[in-house]
Design brief:
- Helix content is 30%, strand content 23%.
- By secondary structure, the chain is an alpha/beta fold.
- It has a single domain, classed as Alpha-Beta Complex (Maf protein), CATH 3.90.950.10.
- Strands 2-1-3-4-5-6 form a six-stranded mixed sheet.
- It is globular.
- The chain starts with a strand and ends with a helix.
Length: 197
C-alpha cells in the first residue's frame, strides 16, 4: 500500500521534480496545490535546514499527515555565497527569474573562469508523528556567462554542473534528476525511509 505524503510547496517546478524523483510504489504524493486554505509560511530561517524543518513541521501540525519540505538555493563563490538562503527572494520575490539571472550575470561580468564556481544546496526535511529528519544534497558547478536553455526553473539556465558543458536549463530533465542537489537529498531521504518506515 502506498504511503501518503505531502510536499510542503506550491512551486510547480519543485513538485514536478519531487514526483519524478520519488516516482515509485512507495508514495502517494500530494502538494500544497492540492490543499486549500492553508496559511503561508514565512521562510525567515538563517539556513536551508531551518526553513525546511519549519515548513515540514508547520504543514504536519496543520494536517497531521507525514510531510516533506525542502529549502534550496544557489551559493556563488564570486558573490561571497550569495544569493544563498535568500535565493528565492533575491532582488525581490516578485522579480521575474530571468531578470534575477541577468543581474547575477552582470555582477559577474569579467570574472575569470576559476572565479565562477558555485553550488546548489538542498535540504529536505521529513516530519511525522515520531520524528524529524533532514537530508542534504549538494551539486557543484559554475555560473554561465549567459542564460541558456528553457528546462527546469529558477537559476537553472545559468548553472553548469561539474563534468558538463550545459546548464541545468539545457540538460534533459532525466539527467538533472539524477545529478541535482534535490535528487541527492531525496535519494538520501528515500533510502532512509524504506529502511525505517
Amino acid at each position: 500500500m502506498k504511503r501518503k505524503i505531502i510536499i510542503a510547496t506550491k512551486n510547480k517546478g519543485k513538485i514536478k521534480e519531487f514526483k519524478k524523483i520519488l516516482s515509485d510504489k512507495e508514495f502517494e504524493i500530494s502538494s500544497l496545490l492540492d490543499i486549500s486554505d492553508l496559511p503561508g509560511i514565512n521562510e525567515d530561517g538563517n539556513s536551508f535546514e531551518d526553513n525546511a524543518v519549519k515548513k515540514s513541521g508547520h504543514i504536519f501540525d496543520l494536517t497531521g499527515k507525514p510531510c516533506i519540505a525542502d529549502d534550496s538555493g544557489l551559493e556563488i563563490d564570486y558573490l561571497d555565497g550569495a544569493p544563498g538562503v535568500k535565493s528565492s527572494r533575491y532582488y525581490g520575490i516578485s522579480t521575474p527569474q530571468s531578470v534575477k539571472n541577468e543581474k547575477i550575470i552582470s555582477m559577474m561580468k569579467g570574472a575569470k573562469e576559476n572565479k565562477r564556481g558555485a553550488q546548489f544546496i538542498c535540504v529536505v526535511a521529513f516530519t511525522d508523528n515520531n520524528e524529524k529528519k533532514t537530508f542534504e544534497g549538494v551539486c557543484k558547478g559554475r555560473i554561465s556567462d549567459k542564460q541558456k536553455g528553457s528546462n527546469g526553473f529558477g537559476y537553472d539556465p545559468i548553472f553548469i554542473p561539474e563534468e558538463f558543458d550545459k546548464t541545468f536549463g539545457e540538460l534533459d530533465e532525466d539527467v538533472k534528476n539524477r545529478i541535482s542537489h534535490r535528487a541527492k537529498a531525496l535519494r538520501k531521504f528515500y533510502n532512509w525511509f524504506v529502511k525505517n518506515k
